[in-house]
Amino acid sequence: MALEVVTEFFNEILEFKNSGIYQFVTDAFAQFVIWSTVASIKAKLFMLSFAWDVAQQILVNLNISSMLQQAWASLDSRMLQILTACRVPDAINIILSARVTRYVLEFLGL
Q1: Most CB within 10 Å of its CB: which of 8, 32, 50, 73?
Q2: How many Cβ atoms from other residues are within 10 Å of residue 50's Cβ?
Q3: What total number of domains does the chain contain?
C-alpha cells in the first residue's frame, strides 16, 4: 500500500517533468500574449483619444472655424442652401478633424 503511493507519487513527478512543464510553459506564454495584446489595444485606444483631443485643440488654436465661417459667408444664398442641404459643412468638418488627428498620430509615431 505505501509502496504503491510512493510509486504513484514518483510517476506523477515524472509525468509532470515529461509533459507538464511543456504544458505549463505553453499556457504561461499564451496568457502573456493575451495580456500583451489587450494592453496594446488599450494603449492604442488611449493614444487615439489623446490624439483626438490634441487635434481639436490644434483646430481651435489655428482658428479654422472662423475662417470657414468667413468662407461660407462669402457664398451667395442659393449656393449656401444647396451646400448646406448636401451637408457639405459637416463633411468638411469631419475630413478636417480626421486629417489633423491623423497628423498627430503620425507625429506620435502611431
Answers
A1: 50
A2: 14
A3: 1
pTM for this predicted structure: 0.61
For the four alpha carbons of 69, 70, 72 and 78, in that order, the dihedral sign comes to: positive
pLDDT (mean) for 4-21: 79
Q: Tell me, rounded to whole angstroms, the distance of Cα 17 from its chain centroid.
A: 41
Q: What is the domain range of residue 58?
A: 2-108
The 10 Å CB-count burial string (b at 16+, else e) for 18-29 is eeeeeeeeeeee
* pLDDT at residue 76 is higher than 90: no
pLDDT tens per residue across span 26-44: 899 999 999 999 999 999 9
Do 96 and 59 contact (CB within 8 A), yes or no?
A: yes
Read off the C-alpha cell for 28: 504561461
**Inter-axis angle of helices 88-108 and 77-85, to 10 degrees?**
60
